[in-house]
Structures are given as structure tokens and as C-alpha cells.
Design a protein that fits this description.
The structure is a single chain. By secondary structure, this protein is an alpha/beta fold. The chain contains 16 helices and 18 strands. The strands form six sheets. It has a five-stranded parallel beta sheet with strand order 7-4-3-12-13, sandwiched between helices. A four-stranded antiparallel beta sheet has the order 8-9-10-11. β5 and β6 form a beta hairpin. α2 packs across α3. The chain binds adenosine monophosphate and zinc ion (ZN). Zinc ion binds next to loops.
Length: about 475
């Protein structure tokens, strides 16, 4: 496996710390709003990374945090706290907001067929670990107290900008407009580890600490949660490119200062999904979510395919026009798979050849569009259907486009007109509502009604599905 490592700025051979095992960390969402499809581009790519590593035989453990405290809307430790802002907007408590949007995030995860990380840890569950790390940083002289906050002293490091390739001068330009520059800091690039006194007096969640009642800075959570679950060495850390500076730069600073040795070898960053106006962001008003796409009639997996068609190291521009084309391509692909028969026996030599080609494409810095080309080449090739089917099952372990599920639904759908489909979906909704109201007799009656019309309902983990009897 070869991947581009932001830390070395090169495509490198991936060699994990322990042979065959991969410890991977993903920066999770800040749960003050829905994830937009830009955020989800990053998670889709990370999902492909996990599944590629598994396809290639690695045993992967993935950890993800949930940022439910202390992420400021400006990354220069100024601006409003995002969680507090969300709670105010919706007249709810911060914890209510966090739970609601965490659930919504994982609903999207499921719709996009992403594998759940082995560990998901909200920042608010790890306060003692944050305090411990900050105590050690103070003891080692990497942190200082000023103005009732605790800061990380970036001047103590030889190479603070190792990841971001920035320098003090650029940083000063970056914060030039920031009239609120924190005067407690010894150096401009220092960042807060623990707040007891911030500009946001209304912070809802606070904890006792050796430095007074307060709350953690944003960056400390990923260092602590990563070390807590993956130990002192991590193989690969992922996020969107906006995480490179300051978030990941600060994570490296505090983790390596704490551990006293290098921490994570590979850093993978996904470029942004943009629209005509630039980067999609949660804080800037309207944004596109999976639900919005569904309301407009798109299958979430068409968006997954949209994301897979481009390389993660290039910005990707979203437009409905392109999504329409990709939706059609997805339907066409599913139709071709639905047409495959059970003819022949799996030809193991052909199977091994395509399996390798597909793996090689992904092992080449996650070349997803090349991997898709292998799928299309296979479908066109003079190979028996049994072999094609077996290979597509294997490929879909990584692609996760639910190719056979969608093909089955297509076959079940065949010959059912739009009016009838609408009727079935309405009945399914009615049955859902009856079940919710614990009116099981009504729910059963609806199922029986549909059966009498020749439609069978199936309750599956992904929801209710129907097929012709
Ligand atoms: P947040 O919830 O804002 O902390 O972001 C969650 C993840 O989405 C982070 O890894 C970000 O780097 C990433 N991200 C934010 N905006 C975009 C975008 N427009 N395109 C791709 N990834 C993004
Ligand atoms: Zn993080």
C-alpha cells in the first residue's frame, strides 16, 4: 500500500508499527449541526481507506472522537464556541444538541454504507485523561498558566510546523484580522489546553480541574482519545485538509511532547468538496445534507459513487448536473449486475487476476476511479457470470455501493408501476406509525393488506423492504 503522507509530503510505502495491524484515528464530527456532504466526502474516503486495508489483509482498529465540547468557531481560540452556538440556536442544552446530531451523523453513516469505527468516544467522556495529559505537559515544561488558562508553549518545540509547512510569518498574516488576539499567550501560535476563563462566560459544560473549573481546548481531545485507545504509537491519522493547521499540528505538538517520542507516522488528508462559491461549511448558513439529497430523490449511494469517482487529493466540485449523471451511471451499473446469471463456475485464476488489479488500484494511494474502471472492465470482459458475481461481491466489500442489494430491489421492482410503488411506500409509512403507536393489530393488518395485493414486506436492519410475492 502506498499513500501520500502529509507529514513527509510524499507518496510513501505504508508500513505499520506492528506487522499486519493498523491503528487508525479519524477526527470525528463537531456535533452542533448535521454533517454536510462535504464532511461526508472525508468520511467516505476514510471508509475506503479502512476497507482497502482490510481488503489487503490488514487487521484495522479505528478510533473516532465526537467533539461535543470546546470547538471554537475560529480555530485561533477565539470566536464563539460551536456547541454553545448550536444549543442557543435550538433552545436546547449542549448535551441534547450533541446527542441529537451524533445520532443524525451515524444515520448518515449507515445510509452511505460506512463501517462503524471500532471505538467512538465523545470528548466529554475523557475529562480525567485530558487533565492528566495537561498535568504532564506542565510538569515537562511544555505548558504554562496565564490569565487563568493553560497554554501549550509552541516555542519549546524545534519543529512545531512539521505538518503544516507554515511559518510564524504566515501565521501572523493569517490572524491579522483577528482583533481579539489573546494577550495571555507567550507566542502567537500557542494554543489553549484548558480554559477556566474565556471570553465565553456562558459555557454550559464545565469540570473541576487543578487549574479551576473550566473546560478543555479542542485539540487535546484527539491526542488523548487516540492514545487512550490505540496506545503510544498510531499508524495513520485522517481528516479533511482544514484539519492540518492548527488542529493536527497542535495534536502532534502536544502528543509528542507528552509521549517523548514520535507518535503517528502517516497523516492522510482529504481535500474539500466545494461548490461554485467555495468550500462547503457548516457555519455558513444553508448546506447540503444527505437528507436534502434524499428529499430531492437521490439515492445516498449515488453520492458515495460521486465521491469515489474522484481522487481524494483533489478538490471536488459538487453540482446537481454531475450528480444526475452519476445517478444514471449508478442505475446502469446496478442494471448490469441484475442481469448477471448464475452461469458457470468461479474461475479461480481469473478471479485472482481481477482481485489483484482492483487491490493494486486502491493500494496506489487510493485510486478509487481506477478501481471503478476495473469493475467496468470486468463487466465487459469475456468472463463467466459466476466469476463476475463473485468478484463484484468482493469489490463491494470496499466500494460498499450495495450493488447486489440494489440489483435485487431492481428485480423486485420490475413491472410495478410508479402509482403502485407510491401506494406501497405510503402503506409502509402508515405501518411504521402504527408500530410506533404500539397499534400492532393495525400494523399486521397493513402487512396482510399488502400481501393480498401481492406484495411481501420484510423488516431488515436497514428498514422495511418490499418485494413481489
Ligand atoms: P467538523 O464536523 O467541522 O469537525 O468536520 C468533520 C470533518 O469534515 C473534518 O475531518 C473536516 O476536515 C472535514 N470537512 C469539513 N469541511 C469539508 C469539506 N467541505 N469537504 C471535505 N471535508 C470537509
Ligand atoms: Zn481531531
Amino acid at each position: 500500500m502506498r499513500i501520500y503522507n502529509t507529514r513527509s509530503r510524499m507518496v510513501e510505502e505504508f508500513v505499520p508499527h506492528t506487522e499486519g495491524k493498523v491503528k487508525m484515528y479519524t477526527c470525528g464530527p463537531t456535533v452542533y449541526h448535521f454533517a454536510h456532504i462535504g464532511n461526508l466526502r472525508s468520511y467516505i474516503c476514510e471508509d475506503i481507506l479502512v476497507k482497502t486495508l482490510r481488503y489487503l489483509g490488514y487487521d484495522v482498529t479505528r478510533v473516532m472522537n465526537i467533539t461535543d465540547v470546546g470547538h471554537l468557531s475560529s480555530d485561533a481560540d477565539t470566536g464563539e464556541d460551536k456547541m454553545v452556538k448550536g444549543a442557543k440556536r435550538e433552545h436546547k442544552t449542549v448535551m441534547e444538541i450533541a446527542q441529537y446530531y451524533t445520532d443524525a451523523f451515524f444515520d448518515d453513516f449507515k445510509k452511505l454504507k460506512m463501517a462503524m469505527p471500532e471505538v467512538v468516544e465523545p470528548a466529554t467522556h475523557c475529562i480525567p485523561e485530558f487533565i492528566h495529559m495537561i498535568e504532564v505537559l506542565l510538569e515537562k515544561g511544555y505548558a504554562y498558566q496565564a490569565g487563568e488558562n493553560v497554554y501549550f508553549d509552541t516555542s519549546k518545540l524545534n519543529d512545531y510546523y512539521v505538518l503544516s509547512n507554515m511559518n510564524e510569518k504566515e501565521l501572523m498574516v493569517g490572524v491579522r484580522d483577528d482583533v481579539d488576539e489573546d494577550t495571555n499567550k507567550k507566542n502567537r501560535s500557542d494554543f489553549v489546553l484548558w480554559f477556566t476563563k474565556s471570553k465565553f462566560e456562558d459555557q454550559e459544560l464545565k469540570w473541576d480541574s487543578p487549574w479551576g473549573v473550566g473546560y478543555p481546548g479542542w485539540h487535546i481531545e484527539c491526542s488523548c482519545i487516540g492514545i487512550k485507545h490505540l496506545g503510544e504509537y498510531m499508524d495513520i491519522h485522517c481528516g479533511g485538509v482544514d484539519n492540518i493547521f492548527p488542529h493536527h499540528t497542535n495534536e502532534i505538538a502536544q502528543s509528542e511532547a507528552f509521549l517523548g517520542h514520535p507518535w503517528c507516522k502517516y497523516w492522510l488528508h482529504v481535500h474539500h468538496l466545494v461548490d461554485k462559491n467555495g468550500k462547503m461549511s457548516k457555519s455558513a448558513g444553508e448546506f447540503l445534507t444527505v437528507s436534502v439529497l434524499e428529499e430531492k430523490g437521490y439515492d445516498p449511494l449515488a453520492y458515495r459513487l460521486f465521491a469515489l469517482q474522484s481522487h481524494y487529493r483533489k478538490p471536488l466540485e459538487f453540482s446537481y448536473e454531475v450528480l444526475d449523471n452519476v445517478s444514471q451511471a449508478y442505475e446502469k451499473l446496478v442494471r448490469r449486475i441484475a442481469d448477471l446469471t448464475d452461469d458457470g463456475e468461479v474461475d479461480s485464476e481469473v478471479y485472482a487476476g481481477y482481485e489483484k488489479r482492483f487491490g493494486d488500484a486502491l493500494a496506489d494511494d487510493l485510486n478509487t476511479s481506477m478501481a471503478l474502471t476495473v469493475v467496468y472492465d470486468l463487466l465487459k470482459a469475456d468472463v463467466n457470470d459466476a466469476t463476475k458475481k463473485a468478484l463484484i461481491v468482493r469489490f463491494d466489500e470496499v466500494l460498499s455501493l450495495d450493488l447486489f442489494g440494489a440489483a435485487e430491489r431492481l428485480k423486485a421492482d420490475a413491472g410495478v408501476d410508479e402509482e403502485t410503488k407510491k401506494h406501497i411506500l405510503e402503506k409502509i409509512e402508515e405501518r411504521k406509525a402504527a408500530k410506533k403507536a404500539k397499534d400492532f393489530a393495525r400494523a399486521d393488518a397493513i402487512r396482510a393488506e399488502l400481501l393480498a395485493e401481492g406484495i411481501i414486506l420484510e423488516d431488515t436492519r436497514e428498514g422495511v423492504k418490499w418485494k413481489k410475492a
